[in-house]
Amino acid sequence: MADIIQLLPDFVANQIAAGEVVQRPASAVKELIENALDAGSNSIIVVIKEGGKTLIQVIDKGNGMSETDAIKCFDRHATSKIKAAEDLFKIRSMGFRGEALASIAAVSQVCLKTCQSDQELGTEVLIEGSDIKSVELIASPVGTSIAVKNLFFNIPARRNFLKSNQVELRHIMEEFQRQALSHAGIFFSLSHNDTELLHLPKTGLKQRIIHLFGNSYSERLLPVEEETGLMKLQGFIGTPDSAKKTRGEQYFFINGRYIREPYFHHAVMNAYQELLPADSIPFYALFLEIDPAKIDINIHPSKTEVKFEDEKVLYAILRAAIKRALGQHILSPSLDFTMETGYAEVGYQKRTEPVRPPVIQFNPEYNPFKIPTDQRKASIPSNWQELYKIAEQQPTPAKLFEEDKELSVTFQQSAEPEKKTFQLNQRFIISSIKSGLLVIDQENAHERILYEEYLEALSGHGFPSQQTLFPQTVHFNTPDADLLEELLPEIRKLGFDIRPFGPSTYIIEGVPGDLGLGNEPQILEKILESYKDNFSTLKLEKRDNLARSLARRNSIKNGKKLESAEMNLLIDKLFACSSPSVSPGGKTIFITLSINELIKRFENPMR
After folding, report:
1. Which one, of 40, 27, 351, 354, lies nearest residue 191 by Cα?
2. What is the pTM of this model?
């Protein structure tokens, strides 16, 4: 038989390697930033267009390269970081495998410009799909600029798998944040479509966290510090009350390199045991310095997986250090005298929307504690929240309707005389029906009602809004601000009167009519948090996701006492829904117990 095994051409091998190293634009951003860091740059500028599909450019002020190195760096397994196998256990650099640039060049059009400090001229290299098109001497500033254009231009099937520009940009920003966090002493800038989104001056770790995630984090951070013969640990964790329901703000760094380590994450969660609300995850940015000989980072091309020689000991040290930091905070929360009050250069999250002052409407005759009689009689409360407010002000439904004959008559006509309804354990609504008993989970039921109302609002003319007494200002980190901007038309349809107000800042002037006033910024933050959680776990369509998120946030919770009028209205609205038996999350809403089932329970003899 003829020989059938053959060596693949270099360009095919490079494309195969690129599938491991460059999975999406964010992967290329990561590799290029790491090269800039290894070059000793104190300034890194990242320029993105069309979510990284059209352009990814990283500009540094590092050492630069010679003409020979500028050509050789695109060869597979060409690296300046290691020379022998034993060097793998001495690695302090970010890169070392020599695969990144070769992989990127195999699936894109690359323009490299570089110059060393002792040279008058620099070098420009143009590559397309691994083929070198030209090499020229040019005038260039010291450092390196790499522009990656039209990623996956020669692999259309791979390019088609990329998500929308906004989704790809969010992945890029996540990677950018990790690199910026781990190198707070370096200037970073990120621009997208000619708009600078992040401008991060050289600073300390705490200020870098605040610049990235918002001013509110200045009061949420607890320092962690520990040093043993095995490792040095430092960083910050979040206070228990600032924990969120979604992942995304948890960072481990080993010798300056971001890693994913579920075992260490478990140590952190174990330290927070009994301090966190259910299903909540705290913020943390923790940096471990460990002898490179005691770890192996050559596990995966992404270099985010690490093997440890003494992982159980490291687990115990990490857990103990975090418990001590939490204990000090709980026993004696201290004032932060290290907080900088002024900066020569301030980090910011930049937007381009015009800044308009909030509009405050004031009626000097308005008295929030006086409700005109004719206004109260004008219409019968039609939604649960309004009825709930009335019920809270009145001790019983009977007394509520004694004061107004019109309401009383309407209530008597709508209620079935034989229906008996009561609440069990402030969770279940029990109602008598002809065949037996109806048992309803009040939280699941109300979530279903709100979900269908919000879906209808998103598909139609929107949900009514009520104006806040005073406009509320809310500041988001850049990824959340971009997400809110993307969702803004739908958010407004749900009843939020919200508009941009400067860099990553919004003004809330109204909220959905059934939401009630108070804590508007926190409500919006929770909705975005829930939206991100739904998107990552369920891959929901935008409108469905928003309707679920808002319904989950606004539904009445188990443990809330309800009056008879509230329970009856909830039952009526539930069975007017298209799917009254299952919540949006797939939970059972009600069960029935027939008379026959009850009789059988009592007829069984005791043994």
Report:
1. 351
2. 0.67
